[in-house]
Amino acid sequence: MSDTDQRVIYIFPGQGSQYSGIGSDLCAEFESACRVYEQASDVLGYDMARLSHEDPDNQINLTRFTQPVLLTHHIACLTVYRELAETPLQPVAATGHSLGEYSALVAAEALSFEDALRLVSKRGELMGTHGEGEMAALTVDLETAQPLADKHFCGIAGLNLTDQTVVGGTSADLDALAAEMAEVHPKKKAVRLKTEGAFHTYYMVTAARHFREELDKVQINAPQIKVLSNYTGGFHEADAETIKSRLFFQLFHPVNWVGCLQSALDDGINLFVEFGGGIGSGEGPAEKRPNLEGIIKKFTRRTKPKPEYLPAINLESIRTTAGVE
């Protein structure tokens, strides 16, 4: 594929891709990454590098800290990539999963890094304070998941794949849902997720109402590239108030990741580049693997021609994607 044929989208993962030590490899070698972390510290009033790299007080998995930790890492990875690449891949669009949508808006210059930090810090605080319940990933489609969720007073929280639907509810309600699913669909799974609440469901309505006040405080500009909305599954309009309203509704509506991916393909995207985060049992950044790679490759496996995918989540993968040996 020639450079002129490439239609690139930058993507950013959400919660669940944080880990102790995140970003430490970047800051060890790049002053530009250190400046990103210093900027975050100045805005938020605590040492972002110490929290991310050492997590001495076991706070990195608390939502109020997880979200700014990930946003900072996303932007640090993007900054180092742009520094290393002789000719950085130029995106025509950006998207992110849940929290990652804010990083996409920063990449599109619709939000400043500082305002995005303030928003996600408050967003995480409100979600942790006012939210309740838990989440589970079901290996079934929406048509199968919806009646089960409704019956057990759970909400649909995310459409990750056509056969992976996330639900949220109280612990007891999720237990009841999982028990019925095991009986009715014995070959399917209900995998509990480690979260502080039933995010993206009706349990987040109070958090969203408070968060609207925070959205009103920030300036949002027309994106310089197209940005996908988790709420609609389509591209944001350029109007600032419409973007704010969709970020508001995102808090208590399902993350339509399937819709976002399909919209990207319909727009002719043929190269996905993932920035930041990391999953897996390995301890250090070098041992982590990308959060969204599996979902993207599974969703696009029948697409012809098949889109390409590149990770930029740690120093090694950033160097490779930047074309640096």
TrEMBL record:
Belongs to the fabD family. It comes from Solemya velesiana gill symbiont. GO terms for cellular component: cytosol. One of its GO terms (biological process) is fatty acid biosynthetic process. PANTHER family: MALONYL-COA-ACYL CARRIER PROTEIN TRANSACYLASE, MITOCHONDRIAL. Residues 11-315 form the Malonyl-CoA:ACP transacylase (MAT) domain. It is an enzyme of class 2 (transferase). SMART domains: PKS_AT. This is Malonyl CoA-acyl carrier protein transacylase. Its EC number is 2.3.1.39. It catalyses: holo-[ACP] + malonyl-CoA = malonyl-[ACP] + CoA. Keywords: Acyltransferase, Transferase. GO terms for molecular function: [acyl-carrier-protein] S-malonyltransferase activity. The active site is at S98, H200.
